[in-house]
Specification:
Blueprint lengths: L1 E5 L3 H7 L7 E3 L2 H5 L5 H12 L3 E4 L5 H14 L3 E6 L2 H12 L4 E6 L2 H9 L4 E4 L1 H6 L4 H14 L5 E4 L5 H10 L3 E4 L1 H6 L4 H21 L1
Helix pairs in contact: 4-5, 6-8, 8-9
The structure holds erythose-4-phosphate.
Erythose-4-phosphate (E4P) binds next to helix 7.
Length: about 220
């Protein structure tokens, strides 16, 4: 399973890329709005840092506007994936941009039929939002299970990108279900590095080693 960072913050991205576990980045207008400076320049910097797929979202709401914006975003860097919301306009834009060879991530997916329709128009990725479904007492990961099952029946090349991730358990379940990608806030990735038994174990190893060295001196 691929790991993407769900962030528009270059410092955060730069802090994790050297670990070698990050395959790409997703952004959205809310994340980009938090960052200062020129958004296009920031997307370029993120692309050059991660050297993998970087989702940049359109803000137009009509198909023609999304297509024009998507073409401009795709010119920023070869790694840009154009993100469009799942609406009729988004589906239309996805078909046109995909036919032009521009990769599209269809976002704000909350049902299996939305994912299926996005796959039919050539989406490179569909983004089911699991946390936002959990927030309203719906089964976010259940949606991912259904999408993975549906895509397995056909020959779609569309990848299932689990989004709106809130905890490492979402990562575990996404991997168990065979989702292609999990995009995570930095805090969730950091949480995967924390385990008290690892910390205690390492502390004991080092103490034992020091004791032995002192006894030999
Ligand atoms: C990713 O593509 C989405 O924009 C993101 O995961 C949304 O997460 P949120 O529900 O925490 O805002």
């Amino acid at each position: 399973m691929k790991f993407f960072i769900d962030s528009g913050n270059l410092r955060e991205i730069e802090s994790l890329v050297p670990l070698g576990i990050i395959d790409g980045v997703t952004t959205n207008p809310s994340l980009m709005a938090k960052e200062p400076g020129d958004p296009r320049a920031l997307i370029k910097q993120i692309c050059r840092t991660v050297l993998g797929p970087v989702s940049a979202e359109v803000v137009a709401t009509d198909a023609a506007g999304m297509i024009a914006e998507g073409r401009e975003l795709a010119k920023i860097d070869e790694h840009v994936v154009v993100k469009v919301p799942f609406t009729k306009a988004g589906v239309t834009a996805c078909r046109t941009l995909s036919n032009e060879g521009i990769r599209v991530n269809v976002t704000l997916i909350f049902s299996p039929t939305q994912a299926l329709l996005a796959a039919k128009v050539g989406a490179a990725y569909v983004s089911p939002f699991v946390g936002r479904l959990d927030d309203i007492a719906s089964d976010g990961m259940g949606l991912v299970r259904q999408i993975v099952e549906i895509f397995d029946q056909f020959e779609y090349t569309t990848e299932v990108l689990v989004a709106s991730v809130r905890s490492p358990m979402h990562i575990v379940e996404a991997a168990r279900m065979g989702a292609d990608v999990c995009t995570c806030p930095v805090a969730v990735i950091e949480a995967c590095f924390k385990h008290p038994l690892t910390d205690l174990g390492l502390e004991k190893f080092l103490k034992d080693w020091e004791k032995a060295q002192a006894a030999r001196a």
